[in-house]
Amino acid sequence: xxxxxxxxxxxxxxxxxxxxxxxxxxxxxxxxxxxxxxxxxxxxxxxxxxxxxxxxxxxxxxxxxxxxxxxxxxxxxxxxxxxxxxxxxxxxxxxxxxxxxxxxxxxxxxxxxxxxxxxxxxxxxxxxxxxxxxxxxxxxxxxxxxxxxxxxxxxxxxxxxxxxxxxxxxxxxxxxxx
Length: 178
Known about the structure:
Elements: H1 2-27, H2 30-46, H3 56-79, H4 93-98, H5 100-103, H6 109-121, H7 124-135, H8 140-147, H9 151-171
Helix pairs in contact: 1-2, 1-3, 2-3, 3-8, 6-9, 7-9, 8-9
């Protein structure tokens, strides 16, 4: 039991922020992202005996992704309309931390906000791959495993996401930052 707790605590320390960040990008809602994070942590605990550290990051992201998709489906059914990805709680601490590698390289806060909006406007598949690669730092293989798509599809989605972001930022005269 002590070994299980130690392994669990290690996994939580290594992945809790990543889980929350990804859930927040997918759901655009702090309470839902927190709920998904809790649910993923519970699933990690339940599956700890079968958990392989070598593929752990991919399994955690895949589990997070699947739970987020379930939340989006439930939300869409409950609202009886399509999900809008345009709202984001800007005072959320996550938004200021996780996008740091992209956003804080720009002195202009307006440019940073424009970049975040452009990322939120990406279609779900493109946004997922972009966030996992550019913000979370996962490798093509890990993204492929997490989203259950071929590696070449990951590369294509990433290329399309970058092109779409460049297009959106060009319209805002921010193409030099993309």
